[in-house]
């Protein structure tokens, strides 16, 4: 891996800019959105 790809991985996984006011309710909403999307997709295929 060259220096550019190492910096790219580090920028996205370690130094990811994120607001400080994100709390656990945002995480629940995000997970509920994923679950809702999965239910819609599986409902279409059933």
Explain the layout of strands and helices:
Layout: H1 3-13, H2 24-45
Transmembrane segments: 25-45
InterPro entries: Cytb/b6-like_sf, Di-haem_cyt_TM
Keywords: Membrane, Mitochondrion, Transmembrane, Transmembrane helix
Commentary on this structure:
The chain crosses the membrane at residues 25-45. This is Cytochrome b. Keywords: Membrane, Mitochondrion, Transmembrane, Transmembrane helix. The protein is mainly α and 46 residues long. The chain has a domain at 21-46. The chain is built from 2 helices and no strands. The termini are far apart. 0% of the residues are buried.
Short key terms for the protein model shown above:
46 residues, mainly alpha, Cytochrome b, Di-haem_cyt_TM
